[in-house]
Automatic annotation (TrEMBL):
Annotated Gene Ontology cellular component terms: cytoplasm
InterPro entries: Fungal_SecMetab_SDRs, NAD(P)-bd_dom_sf, Sc_DH/Rdtase_CS, SDR_fam
Database matches in PROSITE patterns: ADH_SHORT
Pfam families found in the cross-reference section: adh_short
The family this protein is said to belong to: Belongs to the short-chain dehydrogenases/reductases (SDR) family.
GO terms for MF: oxidoreductase activity
Protein name: Uncharacterized protein
Domain of life: Eukaryota
Organism encoding this protein: Acrobeloides nanus
Length: 246
């Protein structure tokens, strides 16, 4: 079994940070199933190519805004895992609404979409797959839910953020709240719940001027996640494991 466990699920895995997480994880020995979830797996060329050389990569259709696809993904994972467990759930799928997400020119649709994907979607996916993660904890295996957040979601650092990021930051602050709540509600479960900021990454969301490549970000993130213990549950941290204020 790998340091992350045998079975892992990543959302938003077709590009950016999600794809880089999958590309880094396949380098880890001992992973039996790596469920790479995204809205259109048939069009996820990088995942399809990766699957040709790594048969443990399993692309699955999952749109965090669509409860029907979440249920269908759950059924597909259930059929594959059987009585097995899920060791690591990484809620990565997210959106940044550049138009209409600011303080001075807010658009209700933009704010609604930010919250529905960045926080509500995580709630729905986690609720569906958490029993699999609980099964890992019950068997004394590695059991973790890691939510991809952002330092723009830190209320303690809000004054440093771009006002154009307000819908994104607010939705990530809600995600952080949810992560902390999970750690308290399930504090005796044996599951580690954390929120982490991957840094400013050169993706479609982060833009070309970001200071980190997806590989640089995710390699550090995974090294940090591998070293976490149950005492870390409930923390909001950067990619190095340093605490970020809620």
């Amino acid at each position: 079994m790998s340091k992350f466990g045998e079975n892992i699920l990543v959302t938003g895995a077709n590009r950016g940070i999600g794809l880089a997480l999958v590309q880094q994880l396949v380098k880890t020995d001992g992973i039996k199933h790596l469920f790479a979830c995204c809205r259109n797996p048939d069009g996820a060329k990088d995942l399809i190519e990766l699957q040709k050389t790594h048969t443990n990569v399993i692309p699955i259709k999952l749109d965090v805004q669509d409860d029907q696809t979440i249920q269908q993904a759950y059924e597909q994972v259930t059929n594959i895992l059987g009585t097995d467990s899920l060791n690591l759930l990484i809620n990565n799928a997210g959106v940044y609404e550049e138009d209409g997400g600011s303080c001075d020119n807010p658009d209700r649709t933009a704010f609604r979409k930010s919250f529905d994907i960045n926080s509500n979607g995580v709630v729905m996916v986690t609720a569906k797959f958490l029993p699999f993660v609980q099964k890992a904890a019950d068997h004394k295996q590695r059991a973790m839910v890691a939510n991809v957040s952002s330092e723009t979601g830190s209320s303690g650092r809000a004054y440093k953020c771009d006002f154009n990021l307000v819908s994104y930051g607010m939705s990530k602050a809600a995600l952080n709240y949810y992560t902390k709540m999970l750690s308290e509600y399930f504090k005796d479960s044996g599951i580690i719940f954390v929120a982490f900021s991957p840094g400013w990454v050169r993706t479609d969301m982060g833009g070309p001027n970001a200071n980190l490549s997806p590989e640089e970000s995710t390699s550090t993130v995974l090294k940090t996640l591998a070293g976490l213990t149950i005492e870390d549950s409930g923390r909001f941290m950067n990619r190095y494991g340093e605490t970020v204020p809620y």
